[in-house]
Specification:
It is built from ten helices and 13 strands. The protein has about 260 residues and is of the alpha/beta class. The protein folds into two domains: about 150 residues, serine acetyltransferase, domain 1; about 110 residues, Hexapeptide repeat proteins (UDP N-Acetylglucosamine Acyltransferase, domain 1, 3 Solenoid), CATH 2.160.10. A hairpin with a 4-residue loop joins strand 12 and strand 13. The chain is globular.
Length: about 260
């Protein structure tokens, strides 16, 4: 994946646009290293010693997920192989990081999600597992699924398809099934289940459209579609079994993170 030049980055900054994610991440790492010398070696190894976002991401994911069964070095090589074969994985990771910055008021800088946030790290590891799945390397894909569950409390089948610009806040207890599909620019909180019904191998899991917000504890079961639409009583919050409207429409639920309920509906 081609890197932007310093001249291009300077041009972007001069126009008032946010700096590219990688540029911001390195700047935040340098600042944190100066402020907290105890973290300087960790920040150097995870961010500052790398030339690209992809290199840093591969190193960090592998460092977190590596163990006695599969070493961090082996996992790093697998991540790098995936990124080289499909650069859209890295592009999605950058969009996911930007989504966290835009939607989570508790996030102070790029280092928090990149280094620590379970939802972000679980999602990026899943992207590599899904790439492995696509090449028929199911055993290793399931290994990564297991490690993600152990490390982050997030259980996503490697076959599940997830778009970019996705924000998974807190993440504990997230379960996403094999035939589930999650679109672009989706936000979800902890305890969300995208589950199937029945035990037959069928297309049995939910399809979450672009821009949908899934609130804490949401349980969506079966091959149904949840989407944001401008028609009728759409773009509103729903809850219950069966689901009923409980909140008024808003302009962009996944981006605004607006979960207010309107009891008058």
């Amino acid at each position: 994946m081609a890197n932007s030049t310093p001249e291009a980055e300077a041009s972007t900054a001069s126009k008032g646009a946010p700096a590219p994610v990688w540029q911001r991440l390195k700047a935040d790492a340098k600042a944190a290293s100066s402020q907290e010398p105890a973290l300087s070696s960790y920040l150097a190894a995870s961010v500052l010693n790398h030339d690209t976002f992809a290199e840093a991401l591969a190193y960090h994911l592998a460092h977190k997920a590596g163990g006695n069964e599969v070493s961090a070095l082996q996992l790093r090589e697998i991540c790098e192989e995936a990124y080289e074969d499909d650069p859209s994985i890295v592009e999605a990771a950058q969009r996911d990081l930007q989504a966290v910055l835009e939607r989570d008021p508790a996030t102070r800088n790029t280092l928090q999600p990149f280094l620590y946030f379970k939802g972000y790290l679980a999602l990026q590891t899943h992207r590599v597992a899904h790439w492995l799945w696509g090449y028929g390397r199911e055993a290793l894909a399931f290994y990564l699924q297991s490690r993600v569950s152990e490390l982050y409390g997030v259980d996503v089948n490697p076959a599940a398809k997830i778009g970019s610009g996705v924000f998974i806040d807190h993440a504990t207890g997230i379960v996403i099934g094999e035939t589930a599909v999650v679109g672009d620019d989706v936000s979800m909180l902890h305890g969300v289940t995208l589950g199937g019904t029945g035990k037959d191998f069928t297309d049995r899991h939910p399809k979450i459209g672009n821009g949908v917000l899934l609130g804490a504890g949401a349980k969506v079961l079966g091959n149904i579609k949840i989407q944001v639409s401008r028609a009728g009583r759409s773009r509103c919050s729903v809850a219950g079994v069966p689901a009923k409207p409980v909140g008024g429409p808003c302009c962009d639920p996944a981006r605004t993170m607006d979960q207010n309920f309107d009891p008058g509906l």
